[in-house]
């Protein structure tokens, strides 16, 4: 992981970004523009599994049939979802405005929106915002951060990450990304928020799509905040090929590139979970000893997504009964008499269950101390095999209810 201050979209050469105030929402930047200096380049995307697909999702899926994009426009303040034919028309207009500004074809522009579902996108403000953003495009770190701010809704912090890895032939590959997400986050086979990943890797569109799916399955698809799936969930990946690595393809993937992409997307996923609406604790659920990879994934995701587990974490209650109950309805195969459970903090581990047997009450007292920390790991050993998986979530607090009871006013 790149440790200096330059992370995110502009940590990768060949990309320029801007985040501007277009007036779509009341305050702050609300329109992101990302431009490839090389024009249309290999691109891939993953989208919501919700049957209600927003207008930008519909248009972006169509545009990615060409497997190349030269720009991304994303806005906050309006989801442009459940907006009918007029919403689709306005999404197409957005792509046209960006294409005109950057010398591209409309189908070479990807779109994403986030915000309140139902209202029509204020297209005049979008048009003027794109013009403004085009003039402010830059490869500076500050420009990348402003772009990341422009897609925030109830997020309380910017989410940026980057990595530089060595390819198999010794050349360096850079990967950067931004994400937004705090509510309506739940894994369901597709990415569950908005994220944009850029890289200078030399990779084919099919290779990029394959690597993106693998990384999403290890990151965003293992993240849950509230078990709701947005109609706007979108992840884009763009690769400009500036690096001198040997070309990566679907048939000839790069392990090093995959590891780097996983690293960036897992970091963003953890940021999303930690910034869950009203959250006070990041919860990491690590499952080992599963009989299959799918059993490991189902177990970890179900425990991380359980409202009863999440409220127990909020209350500092080491109630292992909540955890084993979630395992029981996860659909994974295991024997209750063989599972072990511990609560871990930064430096301390508190075992709660060993081989199906609850441990003495003093273990629960130790767990209460661990649960005062900001980041908590629930460790589960199913003792059924050698497969493992990790999921991320957050506690469920009173503030979550407050935020979502007045979301239309935010």
Q: What would you say this structure looks like, in words?
A:
- The structure is a single chain.
- The protein has helices at 55-63, 84-102, 123-136, 141-149, 205-218, 255-274, 293-305, 307-314, 320-328, 361-370, 398-405, and strands at residues 15-20, 31-36, 41-47, 68-69, 71-75, 109-113, 159-166, 172-180, 194-199, 234-239, 282-290, 340-344, 349-354, 357-358, 375-381, 387-394.
- α1 (55-63) crosses α2, α2 packs parallel to α3 (123-136) and α7 (293-305) packs across α9 (320-328).
- It is globular.
- Helices cover 32% and strands 24% of the residues.
- It is an alpha+beta fold.
- The protein has two domains: 9-274, L-amino peptidase D-ALA esterase/amidase (4-Layer Sandwich); 282-394, Ubiquitin-like (UB roll).
């Amino acid at each position: 992981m790149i440790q200096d201050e330059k992370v995110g979209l502009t940590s990768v050469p060949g990309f320029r970004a801007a985040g501007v105030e277009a007036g779509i929402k009341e305050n702050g930047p609300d329109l992101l523009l990302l431009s490839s200096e090389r024009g249309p380049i290999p691109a891939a995307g993953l989208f919501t599994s919700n049957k209600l697909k927003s207008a930008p999702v519909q248009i972006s899926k169509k545009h990615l049939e060409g497997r190349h994009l030269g720009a991304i426009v994303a806005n906050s303040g309006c989801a442009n979802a459940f907006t009918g034919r007029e919403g689709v028309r306005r999404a197409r207009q957005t792509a046209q405005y960006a294409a005109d500004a950057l010398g591209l074809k409309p189908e070479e522009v990807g779109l994403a929106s986030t915000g309140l579902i139902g209202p029509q996108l204020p297209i005049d403000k979008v048009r003027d915002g794109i013009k403004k953003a085009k003039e402010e495009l830059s490869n500076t770190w500050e420009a990348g951060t402003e772009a990341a701010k422009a897609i925030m809704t109830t997020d309380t912090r910017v989410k940026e990450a980057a990595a530089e890895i060595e390819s198999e032939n010794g050349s360096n590959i850079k990967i950067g990304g931004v994400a937004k997400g705090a509510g309506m986050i739940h894994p369901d086979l597709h990415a569950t928020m908005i994220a944009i990943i850029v890289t200078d890797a030399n990779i084919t569109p099919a290779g990029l799509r394959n690597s993106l799916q693998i990384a999403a399955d290890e990151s965003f698809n293992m993240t849950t905040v509230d078990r709701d799936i947005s109609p706007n969930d979108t992840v884009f990946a763009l690769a400009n090929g500036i690096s001198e690595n040997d070309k990566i393809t679907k048939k000839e993937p790069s392990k090093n590139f995959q590891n780097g992409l996983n690293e960036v997307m897992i970091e963003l996923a953890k940021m999303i979970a930690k910034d869950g609406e009203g959250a006070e604790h990041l919860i990491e659920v690590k499952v080992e000893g599963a009989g299959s990879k799918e059993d490991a994934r189902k177990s970890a995701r179900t425990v991380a997504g359980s409202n009863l587990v999440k409220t127990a974490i909020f209350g500092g209650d080491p109630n292992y009964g909540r955890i084993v109950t979630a395992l029981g309805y996860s659909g994974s195969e295991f024997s209750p008499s063989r599972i072990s459970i511990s609560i871990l903090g930064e430096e301390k581990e508190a075992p709660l269950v060993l081989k199906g047997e609850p441990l003495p009450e003093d273990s629960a007292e130790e767990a209460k101390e661990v649960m005062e920390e900001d980041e908590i790991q629930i460790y589960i050993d199913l003792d059924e095999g050698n497969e493992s998986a990790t999921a991320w979530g957050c506690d469920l607090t009173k503030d979550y209810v407050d935020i979502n009871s007045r979301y239309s006013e935010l």
